[in-house]
Amino acid sequence: MDMNRRELLSRSVTLLLFIPIAASCSSSSSAKPDASGGTCDGVDVTSSVNASHTHQVCVLTSDLTAPPASGVTYTTTLVGAHTHTVTLAQADLQTIESGGTVTVTSSSDVDPTNGMDHTHTFAIMKA
């Protein structure tokens, strides 16, 4: 089947429309589940890959706009039958809210599927 240049370009553009595009580390008001199974009302971040998997954490908009003096601790999504915790100080929340990036390491927890004690790193920023 011979295609002219116009037909080839038309089909190529149509094909490209179906290729997913990778997103950056964070996004706001995404449809991804938070640790409680709901959707993230804030900044949703995916961790580094450690022990062959990642986790997500949702930093709530309400914590960014009114950072608690004592900071916050979030629980990551459940992956491999375990979660981690991520703690952010008030100053961290203020940095994120003002457009900066905060890099934090999660708690060290054992993945029961492989017995590996490990952590994850999260680079948290507003989209």
Q: Can you give a write-up of this model?
A:
There is one protein chain. With 127 residues, the protein is of the alpha+beta class. The protein is built from three helices and nine strands, in the order αβββαββαββββ. A three-stranded antiparallel β-sheet has the order 1-2-3. Strands 4-5 form a two-stranded antiparallel sheet. The longest helix has 12 residues, at 5-16. The model is unreliable at 8-32 (pLDDT under 50).
Main sheet summary: 3 strands, antiparallel
Structural class: alpha+beta
Proportion of residues in β-strands: 25-35%
Mean pLDDT: 80
Order of helices and strands: HEEEHEEHEEEE
Low-confidence stretches: 8-32
Strand order within the widest sheet?
Answer: 1-2-3
Question: How is the secondary structure organized here?
Answer:
Elements lengths: L4 H12 L9 E3 L13 E5 L9 E5 H5 L6 E4 L9 E4 L1 H8 L4 E4 L3 E3 L4 E3 L2 E4 L3
Antiparallel strand pairs: 1-2, 2-3, 4-5, 6-9, 7-8
Short description:
The protein is of the alpha+beta class and 127 residues long. Helix content is 20%, strand content 28%.
Which properties best describe this structure?
alpha+beta; three-stranded antiparallel sheet; two-stranded antiparallel sheet; 9 strands
